[in-house]
Amino acid sequence: MLIETIKGDEKMITRPYTAVLINSVTRSVRVEQISAAYVRVLAKSEIETQFADHKVVALIPGHHAEGMSSFDLAPSTESGRYLDLFDNELGS
C-alpha cells in the first residue's frame, strides 16, 4: 500500500518495508516493519537515520517481519585478515 504524505511543501510517497538491520559494533541483527520513502535509496537513508547505530542490509517491500527470526553475526576479527583453512606449510 502506497501512502502519500505532505512534508512542508513536498509530497512524499511512502510504502511499507521489512528492513533487516545490523549493528556495526555488536553485530546484532534485527528485523523491523517500517514505512519509509518509496524510492529505496531514500528509504535506506531514512531508516539508517532513524536507527543511527545500525546499517540496512536488506529492504524487502511489504511487511513480512511477523514471526521472523534473526541471528546475530559472529564477532569479527580486529585484524581484518582472513584465515585460509586449506593453506598449509607445503603450499598445496
Q: How would you describe this structure in keywords?
A:
92 residues, mainly beta, single chain, four-stranded antiparallel beta sheet, 4 strands, elongated
Word description of this protein:
By secondary structure, the chain is mainly beta. The chain has a domain at 3-61. Helices cover 12% and strands 39% of the residues. The protein has one helix at residues 40-50, and strands at residues 3-7, 10-23, 29-37, 54-61. Strands 1, 2, 3 and 4 form a four-stranded antiparallel beta sheet that branches. Strand 1 (3-7) and strand 2 (10-23) form a beta hairpin. It is elongated and about 65 Å long. The model has no long low-confidence stretch (mean pLDDT 79).
- Count the E strands: 4
Assign an overall shape: elongated
Per DSSP, what share of the residues sits in E-state strands of 2 or more residues?
A: 35-45%
Low-confidence stretches: none
Strands, helices and their partners?
Blueprint: E1 3-7, E2 10-23, E3 29-37, H1 40-50, E4 54-61
Antiparallel strand pairs: 1-2, 2-3, 2-4
Give a concise summary.
This protein has 92 residues and is mainly beta.
